Protein backbone atom coordinates (compact mmCIF):
# COMPACT_ATOMS: atom_id res chain seq x y z
CA UNK A 1 0.00 0.00 0.00
CA UNK A 2 1.01 3.66 -0.42
CA UNK A 3 1.03 6.42 2.19
CA UNK A 4 2.03 10.06 2.09
CA UNK A 5 4.35 11.32 4.84
CA UNK A 6 5.24 14.80 6.06
CA UNK A 7 7.39 16.49 8.68
CA UNK A 8 5.73 19.53 10.22
CA UNK A 9 7.34 22.69 8.89
CA UNK A 10 8.76 21.00 5.79
CA UNK A 11 6.12 22.52 3.52
CA UNK A 12 4.75 20.81 0.44
CA UNK A 13 8.27 19.92 -0.67
CA UNK A 14 8.37 17.58 2.33
CA UNK A 15 5.20 15.70 1.32
CA UNK A 16 6.40 12.34 -0.01
CA UNK A 17 4.74 9.03 -0.88
CA UNK A 18 6.14 5.63 0.11
CA UNK A 19 5.20 1.95 -0.19
CA UNK A 20 4.46 -0.11 2.92
CA UNK A 21 3.25 -3.63 3.71
CA UNK A 22 -0.50 -3.83 4.30
CA UNK A 23 -1.20 -3.17 8.00
CA UNK A 24 -2.61 -5.71 10.45
CA UNK A 25 -5.17 -4.53 13.04
CA UNK A 26 -4.52 -5.08 16.73
CA UNK A 27 -7.04 -5.76 19.49
CA UNK A 28 -10.01 -3.41 19.21
CA UNK A 29 -8.82 -2.06 15.87
CA UNK A 30 -9.88 -2.25 12.23
CA UNK A 31 -8.21 -1.62 8.89
CA UNK A 32 -10.04 0.90 6.72
CA UNK A 33 -9.53 1.01 2.96
CA UNK A 34 -9.52 4.78 2.54
CA UNK A 35 -11.57 5.99 -0.44
CA UNK A 36 -11.34 9.77 -0.03
CA UNK A 37 -9.82 12.45 2.24
CA UNK A 38 -10.40 16.18 2.51
CA UNK A 39 -8.23 19.15 3.38
CA UNK A 40 -8.81 21.66 6.15
CA UNK A 41 -6.83 24.67 7.32
CA UNK A 42 -5.07 22.62 9.99
CA UNK A 43 -3.34 20.63 7.23
CA UNK A 44 -1.72 23.81 5.92
CA UNK A 45 -0.69 24.76 9.44
CA UNK A 46 0.92 21.35 9.95
CA UNK A 47 2.78 21.58 6.64
CA UNK A 48 3.99 25.09 7.51
CA UNK A 49 4.93 24.25 11.09
CA UNK A 50 2.29 26.53 12.62
CA UNK A 51 -0.02 23.96 14.22
CA UNK A 52 -0.71 24.48 17.92
CA UNK A 53 -0.80 20.78 18.88
CA UNK A 54 2.05 18.22 18.75
CA UNK A 55 2.86 16.65 15.38
CA UNK A 56 4.99 13.52 15.27
CA UNK A 57 7.88 13.23 12.81
CA UNK A 58 7.12 11.62 9.44
CA UNK A 59 3.39 11.73 10.10
CA UNK A 60 0.81 10.43 7.64
CA UNK A 61 -1.12 13.70 7.24
CA UNK A 62 -4.79 14.70 6.99
CA UNK A 63 -7.36 14.06 9.70
CA UNK A 64 -10.45 13.66 7.51
CA UNK A 65 -11.25 10.60 5.45
CA UNK A 66 -13.85 7.97 4.63
CA UNK A 67 -13.69 4.38 3.47
CA UNK A 68 -14.66 0.75 4.15
CA UNK A 69 -13.66 -1.63 6.93
CA UNK A 70 -11.71 -4.43 5.24
CA UNK A 71 -10.38 -6.35 8.26
CA UNK A 72 -10.85 -6.41 12.03
CA UNK A 73 -8.66 -7.25 14.98
CA UNK A 74 -9.46 -9.34 18.07
CA UNK A 75 -12.50 -8.08 19.93
CA UNK A 76 -14.16 -6.47 16.91
CA UNK A 77 -17.22 -8.13 15.34
CA UNK A 78 -16.28 -9.51 11.91
CA UNK A 79 -19.73 -8.53 10.65
CA UNK A 80 -18.45 -4.95 10.59
CA UNK A 81 -16.34 -5.75 7.52
CA UNK A 82 -17.76 -3.75 4.62
CA UNK A 83 -19.14 -0.90 6.74
CA UNK A 84 -18.68 2.58 5.28
CA UNK A 85 -17.08 4.71 7.96
CA UNK A 86 -15.35 7.95 8.85
CA UNK A 87 -13.11 8.48 11.88
CA UNK A 88 -13.09 11.11 14.61
CA UNK A 89 -10.23 13.61 14.73
CA UNK A 90 -9.69 13.13 18.49
CA UNK A 91 -10.06 9.34 18.83
CA UNK A 92 -10.46 9.17 22.63
CA UNK A 93 -13.01 12.02 22.90
CA UNK A 94 -16.23 10.07 23.05
CA UNK A 95 -18.50 12.57 24.86
CA UNK A 96 -18.54 15.34 27.43
CA UNK A 97 -16.12 18.27 27.70
CA UNK A 98 -12.74 18.27 26.00
CA UNK A 99 -9.68 17.63 28.20
CA UNK A 100 -5.94 17.22 27.89
CA UNK A 101 -6.39 13.45 27.89
CA UNK A 102 -7.99 13.81 24.45
CA UNK A 103 -5.16 15.78 22.83
CA UNK A 104 -3.83 12.93 20.62
CA UNK A 105 -5.22 13.76 17.16
CA UNK A 106 -5.35 12.09 13.79
CA UNK A 107 -2.95 13.51 11.23
CA UNK A 108 -0.92 15.17 14.00
CA UNK A 109 0.40 13.20 16.94
CA UNK A 110 -1.25 10.14 15.32
CA UNK A 111 -1.04 9.01 11.72
CA UNK A 112 -3.80 10.33 9.50
CA UNK A 113 -5.81 9.35 6.45
CA UNK A 114 -3.69 10.21 3.37
CA UNK A 115 -2.99 6.52 2.85
CA UNK A 116 -4.54 3.57 1.07
CA UNK A 117 -5.02 1.60 4.33
CA UNK A 118 -5.44 3.05 7.83
CA UNK A 119 -5.47 1.24 11.18
CA UNK A 120 -8.11 2.84 13.41
CA UNK A 121 -9.56 2.04 16.84
CA UNK A 122 -13.05 0.68 16.32
CA UNK A 123 -14.53 3.00 18.96
CA UNK A 124 -13.29 6.04 17.01
CA UNK A 125 -15.35 5.18 13.92
CA UNK A 126 -18.60 6.81 12.83
CA UNK A 127 -20.95 5.38 10.17
CA UNK A 128 -21.27 7.32 6.91
CA UNK A 129 -24.75 8.80 6.31
CA UNK A 130 -26.44 6.58 3.74
CA UNK A 131 -27.03 9.25 1.10
CA UNK A 132 -23.46 10.54 1.01
CA UNK A 133 -20.64 9.52 -1.32
CA UNK A 134 -17.18 8.74 0.05
CA UNK A 135 -16.02 12.14 -1.21
CA UNK A 136 -18.81 13.90 0.68
CA UNK A 137 -18.34 11.83 3.84
CA UNK A 138 -14.62 12.62 3.87
CA UNK A 139 -15.43 16.30 4.46
CA UNK A 140 -17.20 15.70 7.78
CA UNK A 141 -14.74 14.90 10.63
CA UNK A 142 -13.08 18.31 11.09
CA UNK A 143 -15.00 21.12 9.39
CA UNK A 144 -18.53 19.75 9.73
CA UNK A 145 -18.17 18.60 13.34
CA UNK A 146 -16.55 21.94 14.23
CA UNK A 147 -19.45 23.80 12.61
CA UNK A 148 -22.00 21.60 14.37
CA UNK A 149 -20.36 22.27 17.73
CA UNK A 150 -20.15 26.00 16.97
CA UNK A 151 -23.84 26.20 15.99
CA UNK A 152 -25.44 23.81 18.49
CA UNK A 153 -23.07 23.90 21.48
CA UNK A 154 -23.47 26.04 24.63
CA UNK A 155 -27.28 26.38 24.59
CA UNK A 156 -27.35 26.23 20.79
CA UNK A 157 -28.88 28.34 18.06
CA UNK A 158 -32.68 28.44 18.14
CA UNK A 159 -35.35 28.97 15.46
CA UNK A 160 -35.80 32.62 14.59
CA UNK A 161 -32.40 33.67 15.89
CA UNK A 162 -29.77 35.31 13.70
CA UNK A 163 -26.30 33.93 13.07
CA UNK A 164 -23.31 35.41 11.21
CA UNK A 165 -20.88 33.28 9.21
CA UNK A 166 -17.56 34.49 7.80
CA UNK A 167 -16.35 33.58 4.32
CA UNK A 168 -16.86 30.44 2.26
CA UNK A 169 -14.57 27.88 3.84
CA UNK A 170 -15.74 24.48 4.98
CA UNK A 171 -16.72 25.42 8.55
CA UNK A 172 -18.65 28.49 7.43
CA UNK A 173 -20.59 26.64 4.73
CA UNK A 174 -21.49 23.79 7.06
CA UNK A 175 -22.55 26.30 9.72
CA UNK A 176 -24.81 28.01 7.18
CA UNK A 177 -26.42 24.71 6.21
CA UNK A 178 -26.93 23.61 9.83
CA UNK A 179 -28.36 26.98 10.88
CA UNK A 180 -30.95 26.90 8.11
CA UNK A 181 -32.10 23.41 9.12
CA UNK A 182 -32.62 24.82 12.63
CA UNK A 183 -34.84 27.62 11.32
CA UNK A 184 -32.38 30.44 11.94
CA UNK A 185 -31.65 33.54 9.89
CA UNK A 186 -28.13 33.65 8.47
CA UNK A 187 -26.07 36.70 7.54
CA UNK A 188 -22.95 35.66 5.63
CA UNK A 189 -19.87 37.76 4.93
CA UNK A 190 -17.78 37.22 1.83
CA UNK A 191 -15.23 38.85 -0.45
CA UNK A 192 -16.91 38.96 -3.87
CA UNK A 193 -20.28 39.27 -5.63
CA UNK A 194 -19.75 35.83 -7.20
CA UNK A 195 -19.38 34.15 -3.83
CA UNK A 196 -22.32 36.17 -2.53
CA UNK A 197 -24.55 34.60 -5.18
CA UNK A 198 -23.44 31.12 -4.20
CA UNK A 199 -24.00 31.80 -0.52
CA UNK A 200 -27.53 32.99 -1.26
CA UNK A 201 -28.04 29.80 -3.24
CA UNK A 202 -27.17 27.82 -0.12
CA UNK A 203 -29.76 29.69 1.89
CA UNK A 204 -28.05 32.79 3.30
CA UNK A 205 -30.72 35.40 4.04
CA UNK A 206 -28.33 38.34 3.74
CA UNK A 207 -24.79 38.58 2.39
CA UNK A 208 -22.28 41.34 3.15
CA UNK A 209 -19.31 41.88 0.84
CA UNK A 210 -16.69 42.96 3.39
CA UNK A 211 -14.48 44.47 0.69
CA UNK A 212 -17.28 46.78 -0.39
CA UNK A 213 -18.47 47.24 3.21
CA UNK A 214 -15.37 47.08 5.47
CA UNK A 215 -17.42 47.90 8.58
CA UNK A 216 -19.45 44.73 8.26
CA UNK A 217 -20.32 44.63 12.00
CA UNK A 218 -22.20 47.91 11.59
CA UNK A 219 -24.08 46.44 8.65
CA UNK A 220 -24.98 43.38 10.75
CA UNK A 221 -26.48 45.72 13.33
CA UNK A 222 -28.43 47.57 10.64
CA UNK A 223 -29.83 44.26 9.41
CA UNK A 224 -30.86 43.28 12.94
CA UNK A 225 -32.50 46.54 13.92
CA UNK A 226 -29.48 47.64 15.96
CA UNK A 227 -29.54 44.54 18.15
CA UNK A 228 -26.75 42.47 16.61
CA UNK A 229 -26.61 38.75 15.81
CA UNK A 230 -27.38 36.11 18.42
CA UNK A 231 -24.37 34.06 17.35
CA UNK A 232 -21.24 34.71 15.30
CA UNK A 233 -19.07 31.92 13.90
CA UNK A 234 -15.59 33.48 13.92
CA UNK A 235 -13.20 31.55 11.68
CA UNK A 236 -10.66 34.36 11.20
CA UNK A 237 -9.66 35.31 14.73
CA UNK A 238 -11.09 38.82 14.30
CA UNK A 239 -12.78 38.72 17.68
CA UNK A 240 -13.07 42.48 18.15
CA UNK A 241 -15.14 42.76 14.96
CA UNK A 242 -17.22 39.73 15.89
CA UNK A 243 -17.97 41.23 19.30
CA UNK A 244 -19.13 44.43 17.62
CA UNK A 245 -21.53 42.37 15.49
CA UNK A 246 -22.97 40.16 18.24
CA UNK A 247 -25.99 40.99 20.37
CA UNK A 248 -25.76 41.78 24.08
CA UNK A 249 -25.37 38.45 25.89
CA UNK A 250 -24.87 36.78 22.50
CA UNK A 251 -22.39 34.05 21.62
CA UNK A 252 -19.17 34.12 19.59
CA UNK A 253 -17.84 30.69 18.61
CA UNK A 254 -14.11 31.12 18.05
CA UNK A 255 -13.20 28.39 15.60
CA UNK A 256 -9.68 29.47 14.70
CA UNK A 257 -7.57 32.06 12.95
CA UNK A 258 -6.12 32.48 9.49
CA UNK A 259 -2.71 33.94 10.33
CA UNK A 260 0.12 33.16 12.72
CA UNK A 261 -0.86 36.15 14.84
CA UNK A 262 -4.33 37.52 15.52
CA UNK A 263 -5.08 41.08 16.68
CA UNK A 264 -5.08 41.35 20.49
CA UNK A 265 -8.50 41.68 22.07
CA UNK A 266 -9.22 44.69 24.26
CA UNK A 267 -10.85 43.39 27.44
CA UNK A 268 -13.08 46.45 27.46
CA UNK A 269 -14.62 45.38 24.15
CA UNK A 270 -15.36 41.94 25.56
CA UNK A 271 -16.88 43.34 28.74
CA UNK A 272 -18.98 45.93 26.89
CA UNK A 273 -20.42 43.26 24.59
CA UNK A 274 -21.76 41.16 27.45
CA UNK A 275 -21.17 38.23 25.11
CA UNK A 276 -19.71 34.78 25.62
CA UNK A 277 -16.62 33.87 23.59
CA UNK A 278 -16.14 30.09 23.33
CA UNK A 279 -13.18 28.34 21.75
CA UNK A 280 -14.36 25.43 19.62
CA UNK A 281 -11.97 22.52 19.03
CA UNK A 282 -13.88 20.24 16.63
CA UNK A 283 -16.19 18.03 18.76
CA UNK A 284 -16.72 14.66 20.40
CA UNK A 285 -17.80 11.40 18.80
CA UNK A 286 -21.25 11.90 20.37
CA UNK A 287 -21.52 15.27 18.62
CA UNK A 288 -20.37 13.67 15.36
CA UNK A 289 -23.14 11.06 15.63
CA UNK A 290 -25.76 13.73 16.43
CA UNK A 291 -24.58 15.80 13.47
CA UNK A 292 -24.80 12.80 11.15
CA UNK A 293 -28.40 12.24 12.19
CA UNK A 294 -29.18 15.84 11.24
CA UNK A 295 -27.30 15.45 7.95
CA UNK A 296 -29.30 12.33 7.13
CA UNK A 297 -32.72 13.60 8.23
CA UNK A 298 -32.30 16.83 6.26
CA UNK A 299 -30.58 15.13 3.29
CA UNK A 300 -27.75 17.66 3.46
CA UNK A 301 -24.86 17.45 1.02
CA UNK A 302 -21.45 18.98 1.75
CA UNK A 303 -20.22 21.62 -0.69
CA UNK A 304 -17.22 20.29 -2.61
CA UNK A 305 -15.11 22.67 -4.63
CA UNK A 306 -12.83 20.21 -6.43
CA UNK A 307 -11.68 16.59 -6.34
CA UNK A 308 -8.09 15.48 -7.02
CA UNK A 309 -6.71 11.95 -7.49
CA UNK A 310 -4.27 10.46 -4.95
CA UNK A 311 -1.26 11.05 -7.21
CA UNK A 312 -2.06 14.77 -7.34
CA UNK A 313 -2.10 15.41 -3.59
CA UNK A 314 0.42 18.24 -3.97
CA UNK A 315 -1.87 19.99 -6.46
CA UNK A 316 -4.78 19.59 -4.03
CA UNK A 317 -2.79 21.25 -1.26
CA UNK A 318 -1.76 24.09 -3.59
CA UNK A 319 -5.33 24.67 -4.74
CA UNK A 320 -6.58 24.75 -1.17
CA UNK A 321 -3.77 27.08 -0.09
CA UNK A 322 -4.65 29.52 -2.90
CA UNK A 323 -7.79 30.54 -1.02
CA UNK A 324 -9.87 30.25 -4.19
CA UNK A 325 -11.89 27.21 -3.14
CA UNK A 326 -15.58 27.56 -2.40
CA UNK A 327 -16.17 24.59 -0.14
CA UNK A 328 -14.07 21.51 0.47
CA UNK A 329 -11.08 20.19 -1.49
CA UNK A 330 -11.06 16.38 -1.70
CA UNK A 331 -8.46 13.78 -2.66
CA UNK A 332 -9.67 10.37 -3.81
CA UNK A 333 -7.62 7.29 -2.90
From TrEMBL:
Coiled coil: none
Superkingdom of this protein's organism: Bacteria
Annotated ranges, domain Enoyl reductase (ER): 10-331
PANTHER family in alphabetical order: PTHR45033, ZINC-TYPE ALCOHOL DEHYDROGENASE-LIKE PROTEIN C1773.06C
Name by which UniProt lists this protein: NAD(P)-dependent alcohol dehydrogenase
Amino acid sequence: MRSYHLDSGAGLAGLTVRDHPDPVPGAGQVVVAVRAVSLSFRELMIANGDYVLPVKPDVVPISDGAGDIVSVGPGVDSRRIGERVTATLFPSWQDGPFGVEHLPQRGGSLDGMLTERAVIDADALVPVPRHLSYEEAATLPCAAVTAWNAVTGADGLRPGQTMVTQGSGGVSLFALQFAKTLGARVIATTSSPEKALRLRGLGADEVIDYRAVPDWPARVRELTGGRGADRVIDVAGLLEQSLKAVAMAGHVACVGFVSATSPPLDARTLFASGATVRAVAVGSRAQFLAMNRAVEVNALHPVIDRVFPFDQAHDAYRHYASGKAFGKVVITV
